[in-house]
Amino acid sequence: MDRWELAHGRVGVNAPSWLTFEVHRPYLDGADSPLTTVHARGSVFAARRFEQRAPAAPRFGMTMPGSYRALLDEETRLTPYRVSDPTGLAPELASPTWRRMAEAYANRSDLDDVDRAGLAQWLLATCLSDSVLEVISADLSESACADPVLAAGQWARASALFAVEGLSERTRAAYSPLVDNPAPTAIHVQACAAWGYLVTRHAADDSPAPAHFARAEEVLKGLDLPDFDDALLRARLLLRQVMHAERQREFDHAWRLLGEASDLLVAPGDVDEESLTVEMRRRIADRAVDIAVRRGDTEGESRYIAEALALDPYDVKVHMQAAQAAERRGDNEKALAGYLETARLGPYGTAFALLAAVRCAKALGHDEFARVLAERAYQAAPRSARTREVLVELSDPPLAEMLNRPVEHSYEHNWHYRMYAAYFNLGESGSPCLYASLPTYAHEFAAAGSPPEVNWQRLMPPAFRANLVRESGLTEFAVAHPADLPAHLRTPAWDELCAWVERFPTDDAERQYLTAVVLFRLGFGKVVLDLLPPRPVAELTTVAELKLWHWRDVVRYVGSVGSASVFEPTASFEIADHPACPTHLRFVISVFAVVFHARETKSLEAASHWRDKAQESLDELLAGDAHTPFEKSMMESRFYRSVTYVPFLRRDRDQLAREMDRAEELARSVPASTPYERFLARENLRACLESRSKEAFGFGEHDRGRQLVAEVLEIDPYEPKTHMELAEVLLAEGREREAGESYLRTARLGPIGTARGYALAGECFDRAGLPVLAEDCFVQALRVDPHAVSAARGWARVASGALAEVAASYARDLEAWGAARRAR
User: Fold this and answer.
1) Which has the closest alpha carbon to 552: 585, 576, 528?
2) What class does CATH assign to 315-396?
3) I want to staple 117 with a disulfide (CB 3.0 to 4.6 A). Which of 88, 111, 153, 540 is the partner?
4) What is the pTM for the complete model shown?
5) How confident is the model at residue 1 (pLDDT cuts 50, 70, 90)?
C-alpha cells in the first residue's frame, strides 16, 4: 500500500488516515497489515475458513458492534472504502481476499449451504451486518438447525440482527432455534453461551442467563471434539459467564472464572489454532483488567495490561485501560500520553479518550493544549452533549455562544462548518474572525445590486475553500461549480447564486461583476475565468466592463500566487490608461500595481511609476466631493500602506516610517458610522498594524513589533496568521512553550496554516522538554498533511510507546518515497 497516495487529500478526524487504515485494514479492503489489531483479523480468519469450506469449525469469538464500521468510515474519511456490501468496493482498491468474497456475495443465490454460511460469517466479521441478512434472509427451523452447517448460517443471521437491531424481537426469534432446544453441535454450544451473554449485558432481566450457560455446558459435555476445540469452547463459555458474575458484583468469582479459562487453553497445533489462541488470550486479558480494577487488584491489573499489550500492541481498548490505570495512580503525564495514543488508534472511543486527555492536560497546566483536545473531541463526536459541554467550558464567550446555537441540519454539527459556514454554502459563519463572513457580505451586496465603492482588502487564497472542505471531512461540499452542490446542502442564498450564474452569459457587465465577486469570495476563481474568456482591453467601452475585466485579472493573479509562474495582470495595467477608466478604478489598479511589482518583479522603476499614478488619482479623489469622509480616509490610509513599498525598495527608512505613520494615523481616525463601515475600519486598522509590526521587526525594534502584534490580536484574536506571527516573536525571545501554544492557536483557527501550525508547535514543545505534547502535534500535522517530511522527522524523534517504530519507519519511507518522485 502506498500510504501517501492513499491519504492524499483526506484528513481523518484525529489520526492520519493511513494509520487508521493499517490498524483496521481488514474491515476496509480485506487484507492484513503488520499494525492490524487482533479483533480486525477476525475477517481474515473467516475468509480462510471460507476457503477451507469449514463454517462449523471454530472462528474468532468476538465481533464488533454494528456502529463500528460507521465510526471507522467517519474517522478515516477514506470515502472510497465506504461500502454497504462487498461489491461496493472498487476492484482496484480491494485485496484478492475481498474480491473473492465480493464475487461470492454477488453470486449468493447460487452458493451451496457451506459457502453460504462461510460467506455470512465473513460478512459478520467485516461488520457488514446488513449484507448478512441478504445472504441468510430468513430464519431456519429448529430441526434444520440440527445440521451444523445450517446452524452456522443461522447463528450468523442472529448475530447480524443483534448488531443491527439489538435485542429486538427478530433477534430473539433468530436465536430461538439455536438455544431453546439446542442440538448436539459446537455451533449450538456457542450460540447458547452467546445468548446468555447478550441477555446478561443488554436485557433488563438477566435471570435467564445462567440457564443458557448451563444448557451450553450440558451440550458441550456430550460432544466428542478435538482437544483444542473442546478446551477453546470451554474457555469461551467461562468467559461469557464472567459478565454475569460481574453484573452480580461477584468479582472474586469472576476472577476465578478467568483463571480457569486461561488454564484450559492448550498448546496450538497449527497456524489457525495459534490465531484462535491469541484471540482468546487477548479477550481473557481484556476482561481480567476490568475485573482486577473492580477488585482493587493493581498488581493483577498491571500484569494483564502488559500481557494484552504484548498480544495486541495497536488495540484501542488496552491502551485506554493502561491510560486509566496511570491516571488512577496519579501519573497524569503517562495517562495523557496513553489517552492520546488511544485516540490515534481509534476509532472506538476516540472522543472519550480525548476528553480524558483534556482532563489530564488541565491537571498538568497545559490549558491551550487542553482546548485543542476538546475541539478534536467535538470534531470526533459533534452530536455528543459531553464533548460540546467540555468545549464550551474551555472556549471564550463568542465561540461558546456559537457552539450553543441550535442546528437544523446534520452538517451543522461540524466544527469547521460552524466556524466558516459562509464558504460552504453561504450559511451563517459562527467564527468572529474578520474574514469568516466575507462571502456573506459579497452576496448581500450582489443581492442588493449596489457594490460599495470601498471594499475590504483581504483576498482569500483559492486553497482556503479546498482546505476547509478537506479538513472538515464534509466532502459533499467539494464541488468545482456552485450548481454541482447537492440540493440538500443548499441555502436559499446558494440557490440565488446558482440562478445568477445560470443567467451570467446574458446579464449586463455590472450584474456579471457582482456575481463574479461572490464566486471568487467563495473560492470559485476558475468558474469566474471560465465565465469570462479573455478579451482585448481595446474592446471594452463602459466603466462596468473595465471593472469586470480588472476583477478577472485580480482573480487570475491571486490564483497563480505561489505557483511556478505568477500571472502578470497586464490587462489591468492597460485598463488604468483606458480613456473610459474612472479615477477611483485607476487609483485601485495603480495601488495594486505598486504591490505587484514590489512583490513579484522587484522593479523599483515600475513600482515608482505606478506610485506616481496612484498619487495623482488620490489627489483628484480627495479634492472632489463624490466620496464621503469615511471613503476618503480609507482610500488615503490604504494608499500609504501600499505605496510605502517604494521607499522600502529604496531602503529609505525615514520616508517609510513617515508614510506608515500617516497610514496608521488615518486608520485609527476613520469616521465610521454604519456596521459595515466599522467592519471595514477594523479590517483596515488590523492590516495596517500588521504591516507596521513587520516594519518594526525589519528595523530591529522588537519590543514595538511585539506590542503591535498584540494590538492586532486584540482587533481580531481569531486570525490564525497573526498567532503564527506572535509565535515567531515568542520563539525569538526563547519562550518555546508559549510559542508552541501560539502555534497551536494557528492550527485551531485554520484551515490555512493548520498543518504548519501543528508542526511548528511540535518543534517548540520538543525544545521546551514536553515530548508528549510534541508527539501529538507532529501526528496532527501528518493527519492534515501526510507529506510533511519535517513533521515526520519530528515524530520519529520524539515518539515513544507502541508507535515509536511506526514513526521511525514512516519518516524513512516518506523520505525514500519523496526521493523516488523527485528522481522520476
Assistant:
1) 528
2) mainly alpha
3) 153
4) 0.93
5) very low
